[in-house]
Design goal:
Pfam families: Methyltransf_11. There is one protein chain. By secondary structure, the protein is an alpha/beta fold. It has a single domain (3-12, 37-256), classed as Vaccinia Virus protein VP39 (Rossmann fold, 3-Layer(aba) Sandwich), CATH 3.40.50.150. Helices cover 33% and strands 21% of the residues. The protein contains ten helices and nine strands. The protein has a seven-stranded mixed sheet, sandwiched between helices. A two-stranded antiparallel ribbon has the order 6-9. The radius of gyration is 17 Å and the shape is globular. The mean pLDDT is 90.
């Protein structure tokens, strides 16, 4: 099964159920028993308040059914959504039909964005980057972003704590069902961004699986952590990146060797 086929309607319904339970009481998921709940909108609203978007337009990469559109509407953004899944885009078109804040919805992969250079004031890739070929996707995010535009990016680090059972279980479960999953060598990615001349505005690191939803973070990069949220200002032209991600985390590889 290729990536595009994977993001079918059954995944759409699954992810909607994960999001629907995010604002309810309790820390554990009922959709995936024992797992941490996914984050609710408060996490993103916190970041956008501390690090405001540029006025104008936002490209939501991996927009799904428009989960983040209500947040972007509050920020008075003109919204364009793109997703590799036809089912996701069809759902977004249905839910936001006639909404003048949504300027366009497109079916396309993150690595081949159908937009000209420097089109958007902001680009957001939230809870999606780990399902992309990251070096190629990051190049595209910066390519379509205006100079001085803002990039908001979340992902999974390639080395988390050995005793983070929730993270290990999630990675093993994803592998069993062939879920596209890529872990970032975050230091390597940041080095390349800085070498290009891009400006890292803020970095948030979430030590363990579940900490993202609790807003439990540190701003100094630990040796090991599970997730990150980066805010980057484009200051230079986008250039190709060397690969900086892997389909298996270092932690999982070590565990497999025991």
């Amino acid at each position: 099964m290729n990536r595009k086929d994977y993001w079918n309607r059954s995944y759409l319904e699954y992810w909607k159920r994960r999001v629907a339970e995010s604002g309810k009481e309790g820390e554990t998921s009922n959709v995936i028993s024992g797992d941490a709940k996914t984050e609710d909108d408060a996490v993103y609203e916190f970041i956008f308040e501390k690090h405001p978007m540029q006025k104008g337009s936002v490209l939501d990469v991996g927009c799904a059914w428009g989960r983040m559109f209500p947040v972007f509407k509050k920020l008075r953004q003109r919204i364009t959504g793109v997703d590799i899944s036809r089912a996701m885009i069809e759902e977004a078109r249905k839910d936001f039909a006639g909404d003048t804040s949504v300027e366009g919805l497109y079916e396309a992969p993150a690595e081949e964005l159908p937009f000209p250079d420097g089109k958007f004031d902001n680009v957001a890739c939230l809870a999606v980057f780990d399902a992309t070929f990251q070096d190629k996707a990051l190049y595209e995010f910066l390519r379509v972003l205006k100079t001085n535009g803002m990039l908001y990016l979340t992902g999974k680090n390639d080395a988390y704590e050995d005793d983070d059972a929730l993270a290990l279980n999630a990675e093993e479960g994803a592998r069993k069902k062939n879920h596209p999953n890529y872990f970032t060598d975050t230091k390597a990615m940041l080095r390349q961004l800085e070498k290009q001349g891009q400006k890292i505005i803020a970095s948030y690191f979430f030590p363990r699986r579940g900490d993202f939803g609790k807003l439990n973070y540190v701003t100094d990069m630990p040796q090991k952590f599970y997730e990150y949220f980066l805010v980057v200002r484009k200051k230079a032209s986008s250039k190709p990146f060397k690969p900086f991600s892997d389909s298996m985390s270092k932690t999982f590889r070590t565990e497999q060797q025991k």
